[in-house]
């Protein structure tokens, strides 16, 4: 039976010994533990950022929908106030003509004043809401909002002209166009939802 070789320092260094390798196991365990913790932290951070971004976009979309709905509602109120003012203005004109025929002094016209105040208040409210909508609207909608305000201003300017129907008709049609542009932004076509999860306007 050949004699067992005596371990030399070089052999011990190359092969190593069982007890001296324990430190390597601890190092590897610590490394993988640290790597797992780091990866978990990075994953959670990324998930939180995605969640925060998603919530921000949802709030932004909600603001867009709310302001669009408000603009459409206030547009209807403006058209109604314009019609009331024109009715009151005609009544006021008839009273003044009747006073003139009877040779009476024409008093300060006050019949149409409350209706005029309501008309101007409605336009001011619509203008403010258009400004709010323009702030949150994407470029594809923003131009439509600006045009909507211009048509609303045309309704106000037409209050002293004979043709009051055309500006109001144009504004009413543009309300539909505004709603359509928002639906297109959300990917909604003919009442069906596509790429974005948002209620219709």
CATH class of one domain: Mainly Alpha
The biggest beta sheet, please? none
Terminal Cα separation, in Å? 96 Å
Helix and strand pattern: HHHHH
Number of alpha- plus pi-helical segments: 5
Number of strands: 0
Proportion of residues in helical segments: over 70%
Content of β-strand: under 5%
Oligomeric state, counting identical vs distinct chains: single chain
Query: How large, in whole angstroms, is the Cα Rg?
Result: 38 Å
Note the overall shape. Answer: rod-shaped
CATH topology of one domain: Four Helix Bundle (Hemerythrin (Met), subunit A)
Any idea what the CATH architecture of one domain is? Up-down Bundle
Spans where pLDDT lies below 50 across 5 or more residues = 10-16, 193-200
Which class of secondary structure composition applies to the elements? mainly alpha
Mean pLDDT across the residues is: 79
Summarize the structure.
This protein has 201 residues and is an all-alpha fold.
Can you put this structure into words, describing what you see?
Helices cover 75% and strands 0% of the residues. The chain has 201 residues and is mainly alpha-helical. It has a domain at 56-185: Four Helix Bundle (Hemerythrin (Met), subunit A), CATH 1.20.120. The longest helix is centred in the N-terminal third of the chain and has 80 residues, at 22-101.
Which helices and strands, and how do they pair?
Elements: H1 9-15, H2 22-101, H3 113-136, H4 139-157, H5 165-185
Helix pairs in contact: 2-3, 2-5, 3-4, 4-5
């Amino acid at each position: 039976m050949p004699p067992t070789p005596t371990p030399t320092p070089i052999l011990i260094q190359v092969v190593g010994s069982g007890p001296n390798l324990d430190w390597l196991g601890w190092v590897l365990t610590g490394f993988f533990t640290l790597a797992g913790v780091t990866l978990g932290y990075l994953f959670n951070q990324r998930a939180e950022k995605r969640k925060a971004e998603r919530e921000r976009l949802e709030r932004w979309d909600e603001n867009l929908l709310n302001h669009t709905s408000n603009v459409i509602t206030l547009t209807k109120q403006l058209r109604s106030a314009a019609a009331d003012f024109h009715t009151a203005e005609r009544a006021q004109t008839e009273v003044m003509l009747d006073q003139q025929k009877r040779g009476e002094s024409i008093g300060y016209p006050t019949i149409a004043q409350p209706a005029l105040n309501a008309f101007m208040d409605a336009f001011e409210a619509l203008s403010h809401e258009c400004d709010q909508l323009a702030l949150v609207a994407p470029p594809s909608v923003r131009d439509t909002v600006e045009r909507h305000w211009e048509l609303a201003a045309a309704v106000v300017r037409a209050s002293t002209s004979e043709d009051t129907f055309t500006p109001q008709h144009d504004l009413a049609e543009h309300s539909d166009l505004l709603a359509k542009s928002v639906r297109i932004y959300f990917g909604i076509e003919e009442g069906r939802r596509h790429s974005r999860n948002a209620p219709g306007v």
